[in-house]
Amino acid sequence: MKKKLLLLAWVLIPTVLFAQNTNQSYKIFETKTKKSISLEELVKNIKNADVLFFGEEHNDSIGHLLEAQVFSRMIIAYPGTALSLEMFATDVQPVINEYLASVISEKNFIKEARAWNNYKDYKPLIELAKQNKAEVIGANAATRYSNAVTFSGLEKLNDFPAASKVFLPPLPIDTATGRYLEKFIETLGGHDMGGMKIYQTQNLWDASMAWSIAKYAQLNPKKKILQVNGRFHSDEHLGIMGQLKKYAPKLATVNISCFTGKDSEEPDWTKQTILGDYIIITNVIKK
After folding, report:
1. Average of per-residue pLDDT values in the chain
2. Picking from 110-114, 174-178, 180-184, 260-264, which range would have the lowest pLDDT averaged per residue?
3. Concatenated DSSP letters of 52-74
4. Is the pLDDT of residue 17 over 80?
5. Can you name the CATH fold of 2-282?
6. Is the pLDDT of residue 175 over 60?
């Protein structure tokens, strides 16, 4: 009973915050039908999925609130749902576990887990996990590894000690080509990528998150995973999702692409259908 009350409290927090944004809202679209659906319908629809990717824009406040809403409903509908985050690295997993076990303070957690500057946006997710004994996966590569790749390329990872490599995906890491590379170049506006090293860093992040998900899924085959990341990492089923196909091809995945719609209340179906299985447009003005 106590657990249910704690969960209810954290379910209500995002709801209250939504109510405070009276001029802002959101719409969820299922791309295969191009129809608007409810949050409850989305969670029901992922019954057969192993991993739900929530691709966010890091500065989208409504999107962050929605992540907590989705997670809270997944915990209820699919007990044991785990949370995987781009925002924490693999090497701070012990710190994450210590905070979830309530043996260290939030201050220590934020400092020693190297939480992002906008941790307040992800705090509801962490607290939901803590109160409901859900596991949280620090999924990304630590900055020291990504910096090494940015300066020296993926081959530099081979020089790290064996003890360091436990925090990395299996080497060598595949560098995605085709559409994902094209998107990356488009995003940079055609600027020089330093002999592909910047793109190799992107692939390190993708592979690290995919490997973290694959490892957890292998050890916990009956549990669903909510993966939260910047939407470039999972839009068009590329990035992390492409890497995950290599590590765990049998996992069933679904992705959400969530972004600010500005003056639009509906996706541009001529261009955005390919982004995800579901598209969420935030900052929709209620009329």
Report:
1. 91
2. 260-264
3. EEEEE-TT-HHHHHHHHHHHHHH
4. no
5. Rossmann fold (3.40.50)
6. yes
Distance of CA 281 to the CA centre of its chain: 17
What pTM was estimated for this model as a whole? 0.91
Q: Contact 272/264 with Cβ under 8 angstroms?
A: no
Alpha carbon distance 41, 51 (integer Å): 17
Cβ neighbour number for residue 33 with a 10 Å cutoff: 8
Matching residue, tokens 């940079």: 188
Give the 3-state secondary structure of residue 280: strand
What is the per-residue burial (b if ≥16 Cβ within 10 Å, else e) of 260-284? bbeeeeebeeeebeebbbbbbbbbb
Q: Which residues of 6-19 are buried (b: 16+ CB within 10 A; e: fewer)?
A: bbeebbebbeebbe
The length of the chain is 287
pLDDT at 165 over 70: yes
